[in-house]
Design brief:
Elements (H helix, E strand, L loop, with lengths): L2 E2 L12 E2 L11 H4 L7 E2 L9 H16 L24 H11 L4 H11 L22 H10 L3 E2 L13 E5 L6 E11 L4 E7 L4 E4 L6 E6 L3
Antiparallel strand pairs: 1-2, 3-6, 4-9, 5-6, 5-9, 6-7, 7-8
């Protein structure tokens, strides 16, 4: 299935059909109202997090907020394994993929190998007849399926304290299956009592207080 991007209302309404991961609204309030630069944001020390894998993931995710400045959903041929598009661009899934790689987990390879052995267990939204190492891991529904199959799924709740640094969260942005995914950071908003989400929803990778802005469809803890 192709991703549907809503362009700003000031422009003529039109649709771009692309074979990638996140489906986004470029005018998301997340980009204007919940900035990482909020005066209420604090950042607990990484040393306070016991898991070295989670520390590495968070290091990568925070670094991405400084280097990944654009959103590019075009289908791209990449290397396998450990393939990636240029770090200055990407989509929502790339935030998660890059963070996991820093922790020693190549989701490109992990998803591909599981899909190759269990292709019928994965969504058939894109009319594929076989796995594709260029794109499969960069699609939100495939990551959701992979995490569930590996026993990494947690309940979805409305309690901020349930969402810990290093967790992965997925959403339905519009109630119609417009998918998105991001990672819970260690950047804490004392005002709302929530950790910020690091994600790319259209204007590059950002850390924003958006965990409950949309309907949560998945909550995963890998480590």
């Amino acid at each position: 299935m192709f991703c549907l991007i809503k362009i700003a209302r000031a422009l003529p309404m039109f649709c771009l059909f692309i074979t990638l991961a996140c489906q986004i609204n470029l005018q998301s309030s997340a980009q204007t109202n919940h900035s990482i630069f909020s005066a209420t944001s604090e950042q607990p020390k990484l040393s306070e997090i016991a898991s070295k894998e989670i520390r590495k993931m968070l290091e990568s995710a925070v670094e991405q907020t400084s280097v990944t400045k654009s959103y590019d959903p075009n289908y791209t041929v990449i290397a396998y394994p450990n393939g990636d598009v240029p770090v200055e661009k990407g989509v929502c899934t790339d935030v998660v993929i890059r963070a996991f790689r820093r922790a020693g987990v190549d989701l490109q390879r992990e998803v591909h190998e599981d899909m190759r052995a269990n292709f019928s267990m994965y969504p058939r939204k894109w009319s594929l007849k076989s796995p594709d190492t260029n794109i499969d891991h960069r699609r939100v529904p495939n990551l959701q399926t992979f995490f569930i199959r590996k026993g990494k799924s947690l309940p979805t709740t409305e309690k901020p304290e349930d969402y810990k640094p290093g967790d992965v969260v997925s959403w339905d942005l519009n109630g119609k299956g417009m998918t998105h995914i991001g990672m819970v950071s260690n950047i804490y908003n004392e005002s709302t009592k929530r950790f910020l989400i690091i994600h790319n929803i259209g204007a590059g990778t950002k850390a924003e207080d958006v965990v409950f802005d949309w309907k949560i469809t998945g909550h995963y803890r890998y480590f």
